[in-house]
Amino acid sequence: MDVRTCLRLVRRHWWIVLVTLMLTVGSAALVTVRTAPRYVASVTFFVTAPNQGVSNAYQGELFLQQRVKSYADLLRSDRLAQAVVADSGLGLTADDIQRRVATSTEPGTVLLRASVTDTDQTRAMRVTEALSAKFVELVKKIETTSDGKAGPTRIEVVGGPRVSASPVSPQPNRNLALGVLVGLLLGVALAVLRGMVDVRLRDAAGLQRATGSPLLGDIPFDQGAKAAPLIVGEAATSARAEAVRKLRTNLRFVDVHEPARVIAVTSALQGEGKTTLSCNLAIALAEAGWRVLLVDADLRRPKVADYLGVDGGVGLTDVLVGDVQVGDVVQRWGDKSLLVLPSGSTPPNPSELLGSKAMADLLLALRESADIVVIDTAPLLAVTDGVVVAVQADGALLVTQQGRTSRAQAAAAARSLHSVSVRLLGCVLNMAKVARADAYQYEAYRIATTSPASVPADRATAAHRDDQGLHPAGDRTQELTRLPR
Fold it and tell me: What does the UniProt entry say about where the protein is found (predicted)?
């Protein structure tokens, strides 16, 4: 994983870094507030040796340094602690004294430092004074020979005792700085880890790698899409509508030598927006002057009729079982060259019905009656209906939702199509997050006061054709060809 990938993961999961930083800084502040102030009193001893007992300066130096190490242990001994307790009257035990005392030596010197840490400034000073006095007495007593003469070493107090004027702990600035540093490091690590274990599709590159097919479009997330899913009216000038038009252009140029006239729109899972995209794609194609037929082949959960506001009681199912003729149930939608074939009644055997010869014959007839047939099918991983329909189409368009579909699910959906030799035209990343700069650029460029309805139909049709390089056979100003009865 390179640095750019790590930065992208951190940017994607910035909230993890922020929450972690807030928690660590808050913890550091809480510890700082709840920790009692501690003061340190210190005293410095100097170890010397009389001339007698030492043959030369070098040996005397080594001897004193060894003595200093021994005296450091003696400062924290039980005997000295008990002597301090007996004479100080501070109400502390020998264990309390030993826990408060710390010693240190300067390498290469004969200086010995003792410090006492306590939450009470006065008590720290009194313990240090008693400790230094008793330590000098104890060393003198130990070093005195049996005949009453002074020993080879002597202890002198050369510094202190003195106590710090301000607490040595807690240190708010240090604690908060440490909290910020730990929070940033931990937050970045968690963000990167979250990104590494996240199997959901987050960008177009991941979708292309998972499916092995080109990305034909990414439809931006639109807050108003739930209330107004179709790209008509005010939504016709939105960034979502423009993305659908880009998809229309890319779809028509996937293969100019073998254009797909019957397109199955499917998804890996339910609720990824395939039905909405099917309707909007059909509307966009009809706006370009093409004769478009939208078929609702999701016989288990049909939604096309609800989205377009047409009667869905009779439709594809009734045509396939021979109850009605297709020309009697196809409905024109709006003032565009868009025909809709709803799903009809719910059958007990959707897969068998969609894979029947009647369905193959119907698609053949629809192909001759319309320029483009868009078929909304069932999700691929839920049931086999989508694969059954896609096999009979010229190609399939796979819709996935950013942040919901996993890479494994998208790959499984693509494999289910490839396993039956379905031509996967490409993929669409739905509800994608668009960079703020891109959204601003689109809003700055588009003319809000101009809507498709205000452009004359003949000029709009010609403009769309010239823009996309589309040259369908026949005159688009003529009435739509009547479907077979």
Answer: Cell inner membrane
Cα separation of 413 and 423, whole Å? 13
* 258 in the same domain as 136: no
Q: At 129, which amino acid appears? A: E
* Alpha-helix residue ranges (DSSP H) falling in 309-447: 316-320, 326-329, 350-354, 357-369, 385-392, 407-418, 436-445
Higher pLDDT, 218 or 52: 218
Which conformational region is residue 286 in: left (phi greater than 0), alpha (psi within -120 to 50 degrees), or beta? alpha
50 and 142 co-located in one domain: yes
Chain mean position to CA 319:
48
**Tokens at residue 454, please?**
């205000």
Residues 99 and 20: their CA atoms lie apart, in Å, by 35
Contact 235, 228 (CB under 8 A): yes
Label residue 397 by pLDDT band (50, 70, 90): very high
pLDDT: which is higher, 152 or 195 = 195
Average pLDDT over residues 154-169: 86
Same domain, 28 and 52: no
Range of the domain at 95: 39-163
Backbone angles phi, psi at 224, to 5 degrees: -85, 0
Residue bearing tokens 């024109």:
332
The answer to the question of residue 479 being in a domain is no
Q: Which has more confidence, 464 or 210?
A: 210
Q: What's the first-to-final CA gap in the chain, in angstroms?
A: 61
Mean pLDDT, the chain, as a whole number? 83
Q: Are 413 and 211 in contact (CB under 8 A)?
A: yes
CATH number of the domain at 357, please. Answer: 3.40.50.300
Closest CA to 338 of 304, 303, 364: 304
* Closest to 384 (Cα-Cα) out of 297, 468, 304, 455: 297
Mean pLDDT of 92-119: 87
User: Is residue 482 situated within a structural domain?
Assistant: no
Answer yes or no: do 211 and 238 share one domain: yes
Tokens describing residue 408: 């494994």
| Closest to 284 (Cα-Cα) out of 412, 468, 52 | 468
Do residues 338 and 444 share a domain? Answer: yes
Q: Are strands 424-432 and 215-220 parallel, antiparallel or unpaired?
A: parallel
Same domain, yes or no: 116 and 238: no
Max Cα-Cα span within the chain: 134
Residues 6+ apart with CB under 8 A from 382: 269, 270
